[in-house]
User: Fold this.
Amino acid sequence: MKKIDLHIHTVATVSDSAFEFSLEVFKNYVSQSQIDAVAITNHNHFDLSQFREIQDALSAKVFPGIEIDLPSGHLLLISDDSDLAGFEAKCLSVSQRITTANDSITTADLRAIFGDLSEYLLIPHYEKAPAVRGNDFTDLEQYFLAGEVNSAKKFMRLMKDSDKLCPVLFSDSRMKVDIGGWPTRQTFIDCGEISLAAIKACLGDKNKVFLSREEGNRLFQVLDNGMHISTGLNVLLGERSSGKTYTLERLHERFDKVKYIEQFALVQSSDEEDEKGFNTDVQRTRSLFVDKYLAGLREIVEDVAKVDIEKDDKDIEKFVATLMKAADEADRRDSFSKVKLFDEAEYVIGDNEGLEQLIGSVIHVIENLEFRPNIERHVNRDSLKALAIELIETLWDKSLQNQKRSFVNRLVTDVKELLRRRTSATHVDHVNLFDIAMNKRKVSRFREIVQELRKEKEIFSETVQGFRIVATKGAFRNATEMGKAIKTRAALSDAFRVYRDPYACLQMLKGNDRIDEADMHRFFVKISYRILNKDGAEVSGGERSEFRLLQAIKDSQRFDVLLLDEPESSFDNKFLNSDVNGIIRSIADEMPVVVVTHNNNVGASIRPDYVLYARKTLEEGEVSYRVFTGYPTDRRLVCVDGTDIANHEVLLDTLEAGVEAYEDRRSVYEGIKD
Amino acid sequence: MKVLKIENNNGKFLDEKNAFHSIDKLTKGNLMWIVERVLDGTAEIEEYDESKLANQAHQVIYKSLYDNLSSLGARKDEFVDKSARLYLEHYERYMDDTSQGAGEVEDEANSTGEP
Assistant:
């Protein structure tokens, strides 16, 4: 088995942030990580003299290569070392074409420069950004034996998918002075003598490519000390303050995309807090639905808010009163008030909205291409055109008429104003009866809609992990509930007093300075959420935590690894055993999972693939953390430094509070067994 | 039905109890009722004719009402069209909102598997 890392940077190019190359670091990486072959793959660049220096210094086989920017993504091109000068010349052509971070070469350029691509090993960024996609990918697909990924999770997924390229995991590291820890991403191939041809032969066969030297794809390396964990489910055990959290944090640092559910993250201090947090979580994720549902009501409220029935009422009253008074004074009119224009009402200026919509519709029918045959079977196109023309001309007439009327109105108002100044006769205050009648219709329809909306009814239902989220509409029961609709501190008791009449309620809300007009529609209908359990009953406090755990775990599928710290801190054993364990297990089929636990319901019943045992020791005044690992069936767990420990002892100590307590408990259970 | 007429040289209006009253007794409530009848197309208005009205006060009131109501009557169709379309889309949606999310429910419990 050979360990290869064919993606290594040794020169800072325009595509990298600055770094200082260290040959010493490179040598140590290769020897300490026991790497058999590396490739030097700088961005669009190949430095022959540096390559020779590296080749001389390293114990591993070193291949010349280059990481090329294609329009869609990055491609590794690796050569054998038979014609280094020729390879350098070709790479120089790439360098000359790519001088800034935004440049790239096409696949045609690539062929023109390198000739027969089958002589090289071509590895595209595959499930790793920026990935080679689209035409770039299909153009070169015939040369691809493997695709680069950036996590063990993706490696495993591609391994299981026969339609996908063979995955390879490489470090993509900079061999720099301040490297930090050793990279842990490499790939193992089942080959004898290392050569480019041998590597290509292995990558062409998924059965010869692995994540670990001895354990195939069951384990992969996570820490630079050589520690491996399972690509499935790992249980991390250890007594209190034995370095479990320390280990988790080290793991956290090694992955790019980690879902870390910390201890107690899903429980809150009190029932009330818990309920609040839970509701906020649920409401936030569902608020988009409410916004959409209430969008119509919002439009209506905004329109009805402009209506002032009380003022309309007063205007009519004033009209009738002034009309009666003017009539009463009819025989005592002076020369000014006798002028016809004195009593003249203004022209009503109608809007042409309906006509404009109608014209739009007719034009739509005329211009529609998709259904033209259907339309023409029933209506003559020329008639439609004639109709459109007639309607448009009518619109012009009406618009012109409106303009004229507006002009006359201005004139009449001016004259009336002058006459009024010279007479004591009563002037009739005219009203727009059309608008007043329309306002009344608006209000009555608004009342009708709101009353309907207030009828209790389920409007949305979604099932998530066995829980059912149900949204219900209905009426608010008090002002406090109303306030919760947008979390306002505005006093709403006045509005609630007239809540039965939506229009009166709207007037109260309008008068409340602390309420934004954009939020007013939220005070008419209560949208509430309930989470129901499997039996259709409201969830309990415990179930709420369960729901949140399930949501958080579900969320973890987007990540490369799931780290779960003591799930038992939030849940009872029954739930752990029946639900949480099952879910964790099924996630571990898709991605590496590490669960820290003290609980035997998790630790043992979950049937882990791999056991990690953390232990803190004090040696010569120095604290050191060791992690012993092994399969659950192994008699001994082994640390990377060669020390080991009995597995049986670990399990009883950490999960059952020690051998003595376990035996005690067992005898108690035996004693009461019927 | 006639809601405004001239009878015995007097202007008269009809109220909601189907009784005629002298036009100088008109209130805003009566006027609103007449407006509704004009808009629902059931009202007829006798044309204004100054010579038929002896009383000057009646002339003033009758003419004003006649002008206003006839101009309203001329826009009756516009009113009917407009009020029928009033919030119609939302109205229909809210009246018929049978659990819209429920149809798209996916039982995710099964996708994660049971232990």
Summary: The longest helix of chain B spans residues 56-74. Residues 2-74 of chain B form one domain.
